[in-house]
Specification:
One of its GO terms (molecular function) is iron ion binding. One of its GO terms (biological process) is epoxygenase P450 pathway. This is Cytochrome P450. It is a single chain. This protein is an alpha+beta fold and about 500 residues long. The protein contains 19 helices and twelve strands. It has a single domain, classed as Cytochrome p450, CATH 1.10.630. Strand 1 and strand 2 form a beta hairpin. Helix 12 crosses helix 14.
Length: about 500
């Protein structure tokens, strides 16, 4: 009770101060939007169901480009495929800045490849892309790693003997192991307690970052940071993960062989040694920890959440799962593992995976951008450092590009002849200079994990398909799927295929 009174007094004092000062005017000419109050911004016009609902409601009145005051600060919203593309692609350099997410800002503080800006971001992104490629992204070696991990997953699912499974931590484990192989140079056993602890921290943090309380924190972080809340739990979780990464870096340093770097951390350490006389280098310990955290978190959470959503959709629409299995039987059969080269011969499966990504709408309001200079855009002038939210959900649900955007339908990605059809509105990884670093590896994982599971198992739910509910647990920065359980029932295979799947494990 005492805390509530203190919070109220702090908010009231801040409001009075700003009322006397008047509303701060941004220079430039921002797009129109709902009229803000001093300090409170557009809080009173917000939907109680969160930021996304609020933005979609404002869009109906103000169109595809408008300004919302999140507390005292203006943020320009970009809605629809065309507006997002005009900004992030047509004016890529101007819109290439990274905004902040209030709940994780105390952790990253502008370091690491995801939240860096300027020369720091450019140096880290160039290095990260080159190093990820060196360790297999887009090459056969990472495909082989994913195939091997997929077989480990099949073995683990067989142990359930068709019983009910909560897929959260298994899907986390398989996706985490791919990025761990690249960043840390090793995969972890699914029962490794330290590994499971890291995955639990990721899962809880993604839930907390996407929660309603974190969205409120985004509006008034300067005041609320002084009080207990989810932001402090997120900070503790991330610091524990950083300690794990730091310990791994120490072990890498002790065993480093300059002539034979094993992984991302080794390569970064060698670059640190090379640049140690350069006082302005971005290759230092803090950027190593924060870039490793960025890759570890993004490489685990997004793909595993997409898998969880995907199987939930397939439980709801069993005829779609059956059609994918039919295509697997025709193209791959049961006597070999799925391979990336199969993808071009499996348009329906590819369309289903694209539709899963579209319909899951995993990062609905996108990761914030800022403009790097005063920028003209659609008749307005966006002042330097103005925050930009590219509302990816409005592209993924764009009725100009998807016939029934609120319905799960793989035909959105198929032409009249049944061939795969690309859509300019399909931007689950965003677009422009800040497009997801790991898009290639994520697409490879989704294809190989989905096809391997559906080659080996039929899936059923204890809930009737018509009663399966997609309502997310949280919708904020991320869209968190509901918790559910699933039966993985082994499909009939001859003993030769079973033995092949177990080789080397």
């Amino acid at each position: 009770m005492e805390l509530s009174v203190l919070l109220f007094l702090a908010l009231f004092t801040g409001l009075l101060l700003l009322l006397f000062r008047g509303h701060p005017q941004a220079h430039g000419h921002l797009p129109p939007g709902p009229r803000p109050l001093p300090f409170l911004g557009n809080l009173l016009q917000m939907d109680r169901k969160g930021l996304l609902k609020s933005f979609l409601k404002f869009r109906e009145k103000y169109g595809d480009v408008f300004t919302v005051y999140l507390g005292p600060r203006p943020v320009v919203m970009l809605c629809g495929t065309e507006a997002i593309r005009e900004a992030l692609v047509d004016q890529a350099e101007a819109f290439s800045g990274r905004g902040t997410i209030a709940t994780v800002e105390p952790v990253f503080q502008g370091y690491g490849v995801v939240f860096a800006n300027g020369e720091r971001w450019k140096a880290l992104r160039r290095f990260s892309l080159a190093t990820l490629r060196d360790f297999g992204m887009g090459k056969r070696s990472v495909e082989e790693q994913i195939q091997e991990e997929a077989q480990c997953m099949v073995e683990e699912l067989r142990k359930s003997q068709g019983g009910l499974v909560d897929p959260i931590f298994l899907f986390h484990s398989v996706t985490a192991n791919i990025i761990c192989s690249i960043v840390f140079g090793k995969r972890f056993d699914y029962k490794d307690p330290q590994f499971l602890r890291m995955l639990d921290l990721f899962y809880k943090s993604f839930n907390l970052i996407s929660s309603f309380s974190s969205q409120v924190f985004e509006l008034f972080s300067n005041i609320l940071k002084h009080f207990p809340g989810t932001h402090r739990e997120i900070y503790r979780n991330m610091q524990e993960i950083n300690a794990f990464i730091g310990h791994s870096v120490e072990k890498h340093r002790e065993t480093l062989d300059p002539s034979s770097p094993r992984d991302f951390i080794d390569t970064f350490l060698l670059r640190m040694d090379k640049d140690k006389s350069d006082q302005n280098t971005e290759f230092h310990h803090k950027n190593l920890i924060m870039t490793s955290l960025s890759l570890f978190f993004a490489g685990t959470e997004t793909t595993s959440t997409t898998l969880r959503y995907g199987f939930l959709f397939l439980l709801k629409y069993p005829h779609i799962a059956e059609r994918v299995q039919k295509e697997i039987e025709q193209v791959i059969g049961s006597h070999r593992q799925p391979a990336l080269e199969d993808r071009t011969k499996m348009p329906y499966t590819e369309a289903v995976i694209c539709e899963i990504q579209r319909f899951a709408d995993l990062l609905p309001i996108g990761i914030p951008h800022v403009v790097m200079k005063d920028t003209p855009f659609r008749g307005f002038i966006l002042p330097k450092n103005t925050e930009i939210y590219p509302i990816l959900s409005t592209a993924l649900h764009d009725s100009h590009h998807f016939e029934k955007p609120d319905t799960f339908n793989p035909d959105h990605f198929l032409d009249a002849k049944g061939a795969l059809k690309k859509s300019p509105a399909f931007i689950p990884f965003s677009m422009g200079k800040r497009i997801c670093l790991g898009e290639s590896i994520a697409r490879t994982e989704l294809f190989l994990f989905f096809t391997t599971i559906l080659q080996n198992f039929s899936i059923t739910s204890p809930v009737a398909p018509e009663d399966i509910d997609f309502t997310p647990k949280e919708v904020g920065i991320g869209r968190v799927p509901p918790v559910y359980q699933i039966h993985f029932l082994p499909r009939t295979m001859d003993s030769g295929q079973k033995n092949k799947g177990l080789q080397g494990h």
